[in-house]
Every structure is written in structure tokens, then in C-alpha cells.
What we know:
Layout: H1 6-9, E1 17-18, E2 22-26, H2 32-39, H3 42-45, H4 56-71, E3 76-82, E4 90-98, E5 102-109, H5 118-132, E6 138-143, H6 148-155, E7 160-171, E8 174-184
Parallel strand pairs: 5-6
Antiparallel strand pairs: 1-2, 2-3, 3-4, 4-5, 6-8, 7-8
Coenzyme A binds next to β5, α5, β6 and α6.
Amino acid sequence: MFFENHEAIFPKYVPVLSTKRLELVEITEEHAEDIYQIYSNDNVTKYDDCYSFTSLDHAVEAVNLFKQVFTDKTGIRWGITFKNEKNLIGNIGFNQFQSFHTGKIGFALNEQFWGMGICTEAIAEVVHYGFNTLKIHRIEAETHPKNTGSGLVLTKNGFKREGTLRDFVFWKGVHQTIVMYSKISGDL
Length: 188
Ligand SMILES: CC(C)(COP(=O)(O)OP(=O)(O)OC[C@H]1O[C@@H](n2cnc3c(N)ncnc32)[C@H](O)[C@@H]1OP(=O)(O)O)[C@@H](O)C(=O)NCCC(=O)NCCS
């Protein structure tokens, strides 16, 4: 397991988290269409490790994957909604917990809602939950060097740019260099 007391600390249900404008909620089959809208856009998948979705089946598979990582207690993914609205406008979460109290964060927003500070707001809440409830010590993010927006939402949340890792990931069949960002519990 990934943390001391992992079994005790890991939530039984995906908890609902709230921010000023947003709710972070469990992702279910009902959200498949919204997930499809997010990931069928080439601008969203451009710097991600997945290809653009071309059918609703891809979105259903993604929903099942989010559920599976939670069941396996290896990650937690939330859907992002505006308060009192049902539609998912994005998703965020810990793709993967690792040994020694580390969580890898990932996020994506429907392009219609870019540039409104939504991801900055959602990351702040997930980071708070990670450090305070899950007792994670380090939260990290791997971003494509050209993904300016992703780097900005992280640094706005106090993440430090640690450096470039050469051919560190194998995304879409290609060895890719990434920029690693991290925030350590206690960093401002
Ligand atoms: C990256 C992403 C999540 C940003 O979400 P967002 O809610 O639009 O970001 P915010 O509105 O909180 O923006 C925070 C800052 O970054 C800037 N920014 C956001 N996207 C940008 C972009 N593509 N290019 C340049 N600046 C950008 C904003 O202007 C803002 O700066 P400001 O506070 O000085 O005005 C969103 O663009 C997205 O979903 N991209 C595709 C998926 C992806 O790349 N995910 C990350 C994988 S690691």
C-alpha cells in the first residue's frame, strides 16, 4: 500500500469536495456524454497521454477506469461541476498514488470553460484534501513542455518546476520528455 494506514485513510466513497464555485463529485456512467465532450476535442488531448475519443464507448471505458482505480485504491478521480449543476465540465484527481506518500495529479477541462480560473480553483481543493485528509507528503504532475496552461495552473497553486525529464514517459507510442512539477506538504 501507498501510505501508512492506507486502508484506514482511504475513503470508502469518493467524497464530494466544494470550492467557492465548484463541486468535485464521483464520476458515474451518467457523466459519459460529458466526458466524451471533454476528450473528443483535439485541443484537450494534444498534450495528454490519450488519443481523442471518437465514440461514446471510449468515454464509458474512461468512466470504468476511474471507478476501477478507486476500487483498487490506487487513485481518486473527481468530476468537476458548477455548484447546483449536474453536467461535468472537467475532471481532476490523483491518477496514481505511489510509495512513500506521493500522489500524481492530473486534470482536464472542457475547452468551453478554459481561462475562467476553474482548474486553479479545483487543484487547490484536491491538494488540500491530499495533504490534510490523505496525509500525502508529495504531490507531483508530469506536463508536456509545451503545455503552458498546465504549468501555470500548477505554479499558481504553489507547485515548483523541478526540471525536465528526458524521454520519461511513453505517450501515444512515443517517448516523450516531460516537465516535472511538485508540491510538498508544508510548501506555501
Ligand atoms: C490546462 C487546463 C486544465 C487549464 O485550465 P483552466 O481552468 O483554463 O486554467 P485557469 O483558468 O485556472 O488558468 C490559470 C492561468 O493559466 C493561464 N492559462 C490557462 N490556459 C492557458 C493556455 N492554454 N495558454 C496560456 N495560458 C493559459 C490563464 O490565463 C491563467 O493565468 P492568469 O491567472 O494569470 O490569468 C486546461 O487548459 C485544459 O484542460 N487543457 C487540456 C488538458 C490538459 O492539458 N491537462 C493537463 C495535463 S498535465
